[in-house]
Structure formats: C-alpha cells, structure tokens
Amino acid sequence: MSAKPRIERAALEVFAAHGVDGATTKLIAARAEVSEGAIYRHWKSKDELAIGLFMAAHKRLSDLIEAEAGAVHGVAAKAAALVKAYCTAADEDWTLFSFHLLQLHHFLPYYQDDGRDPVTLVEMIIKYAMMKMELPPGDPRVVAAMAIGVITQTAQNKAYGRLGDDALSAHAPLMTAAVLAVLKAR
Amino acid sequence: MSAKPRIERAALEVFAAHGVDGATTKLIAARAEVSEGAIYRHWKSKDELAIGLFMAAHKRLSDLIEAEAGAVHGVAAKAAALVKAYCTAADEDWTLFSFHLLQLHHFLPYYQDDGRDPVTLVEMIIKYAMMKMELPPGDPRVVAAMAIGVITQTAQNKAYGRLGDDALSAHAPLMTAAVLAVLKAR
DNA sequence: CACTTGCAAGTAAATGCTCACATACCGCCA
DNA sequence: TGGCGGTATGTGAGCATTTACTTGCAAGTG
C-alpha cells in the first residue's frame, strides 16, 4: 500500500492533537509506519503538508455551504442548509473537520480572501436577506459570526469530548433552530 | 522597573500571536527587553509560564460569570449577565482574553474539571432554568455550547480582524438578544 | 533501462534551559 | 548615618537535545 495516504491520515491526527508547531515529523512518520524521508518525497516541507490538508478541509466546507445554501430559498431553508453543510463535512471526515476547526487561526495568514471562506459566504447570505427584508437590519459581520458560532462551538465541545460520541448531525435540528433564532433576534 | 510584569506582557503577546509551541523563549525575552535567563528566575519552564497566564485568564472569566450571573434572576437577566462577563473580560485585557480564547485547546489536558470553567457554569444555569420551566427542555450541554458560541465566535472574528477595532462590548446588545434567542429556541 | 517510491543515517540550525558571575535591594546594628 | 551581609534579580555565553530536512542507496514498476 502506498505511503502517501497513510502519511496524510497520520499527519491529520497528529496535527489535530498537537497543533502544527507541536507536531513533529518523527511522530507523523512513526504513526504512518513510514520513514521520515518518505514524507519529503511527497511534500517539500512540514508546513506544505499542513497547508495542503487545511486547504482541502477549507475548500470542502466552503463548497458544501455554497452548494447547500445556493439550492434553497428563504432564511429558514438557508439556516438549515448551513447547518447541514457543517454536519456533512463533520460526519464524512471528523478528523479533517476538527483539524480545520481547531487550527484555523494558524492558517489565517495564508489563505487569500477570495470571498470563498465560510464566514464571508454566510455574511453575503445575510446581507442579501436583510436587503430583501427577510431579516431585521444589523451588522452582517456580527450576525454571521454569531450564527456560525452556534455550530462551531458545538463542534468544538464535541472535539473536547464534552458531547459524547454522537455524530455532529445528531444535533442538527437543535442547531438549525438556534441558528434561525440568532438570525431573527435583535 | 521589574522584569516580571514585562515578561508576562511580552509572553502573552507572543503566545497569542504564535501559539505556545510556536513561541520561543528568545522572542519573548527580546520583546520584554530582558535576557532569556530572566524568564527562568520567575518560572520553571516556558510551559509553566504559559499555564500561569492561561489559568489567570480562565479564573478571571469564570469568576466574572459566577458573579454576574449569580447576582440576577430569570433567564433574560442571566443571558445579559453572561454576555457582560465575557465583554468585561475582553475589554479589561484583550490580549489576555484572546490568548485564552485562541489557545484553549492547548490547555484542556491541564485544568482539572472542578466545574468552575465557563462551559460547565453555563450548563448548570441552563439545567436549573429548565427545571424551573423557564426554558424548553433539551440537552443542556448542546444548548450551553450554542449560547457560548454566539459570544466566542464573535470574539474570535474580532481577534481575526474581521470586526474592526471596536471593543467587544460594542456588540453586547446584539449578542445578548442572540444568546437569549438560542436559549429559547427549539 | 528510466523512473518513482521508500529507507537509514546524517547534518546544520534551533530550542529550552543552566550556570558562573554581576548588581540592586534591604534590614540590621554600631 | 553608614557600612555589612544576605538575598533576590538580571546577564549572556554556552550546553545537550531536538528539529526539519538531505542524501546516497536500494528495491519495485512498467
């Protein structure tokens, strides 16, 4: 079996557990049952490996949000779509998702803001809904942050082991109601 | 002027910017305009320094939540108190607060759960309110996470520079309404 | 053969931390 | 008051270890 996917999995787990700076190439190699040199056959540096994994998660989540939210109309449906996007990403690869969640701030300097990150996407949805009077007025940046916070903090607490082993989607109905309530609250 | 407080400030800034593992003792010393050795006159290790700072922030926030929420009655007032506690902590020392916010997961293994962390405190408030039928039933762990997420994600986006330079408390009314909406939503 | 993938041993640089030494501070008693 | 000793504080060169990464070689593949 090829080493590359094994290294990716191992790196993901180690990065999620120890952070990018706390992770060592030795640990990653050991976990993948591969020599350290093997890593450098496929990536130029530890950081390139980390960035690649992070961007994959980032893109996956952004794509899901765009697809789910773009397919429906009305605030309630958009809220449900947002929750569904996060839950799908979390359920289909929890390690990748939690790595993205917990290490976000490490990579902020890297990703160019092409407006395709989750926060900006949600901001735009909210702005549009406010224009159409489907939502009461208010700073869209703050409203977006609060709505996303409902989901991400729940996911974080799950990552911290405070919510048991249920999939994130087990809490989707509750989160959907809460996101919608946040959007409408003022 | 004594070096200890200067080191604490410098460490806080460097930890917040680079993370605990990414921060070097050399950088901290340089920023504090102090020799590296001076750090070790006051702390046994870099980690001890980091843990000390983190715990100070952790305790401050927990104390504020306990005090503010303990002084009022009713769900609406408790929600306002929670927001006020976070805003006070953030406004009185933003560097300390954002360090605590962004590096939380690094210190999770350390703090013994004596039930005095912010999440547990909020969970207990919610449980009690549900018992008294002031809130609709639901998993208190998830409801607490969602309510806190409204505040922490807003703070995180501010830390990421997405909300301008206003104090966190500038958004307190909006956050209070949102937290209350989350608590009641189902 | 050409090319990719993997290994084991190694390298230079960096990191956290120490230690011998210097200086500032402070109570104490003549 | 002023000199004295003990302690707390700060220095910076230096140490052992760890780190990311490299390199020469071998085996698999087509």
From TrEMBL, chains A, B:
Ranges of residues in domain HTH tetR-type: 1-61
Protein name: TetR/AcrR family transcriptional regulator
Keyword vocabulary terms for this entry: DNA-binding, Transcription, Transcription regulation
Pfam families: TetR_N (PF00440)
PROSITE patterns noted in UniProt: HTH_TETR_1, HTH_TETR_2
Keyword DNA-binding: yes
Top-rank taxon, per record: Bacteria
A GO MF term: transcription cis-regulatory region binding
Binding region for DNA: 24-43
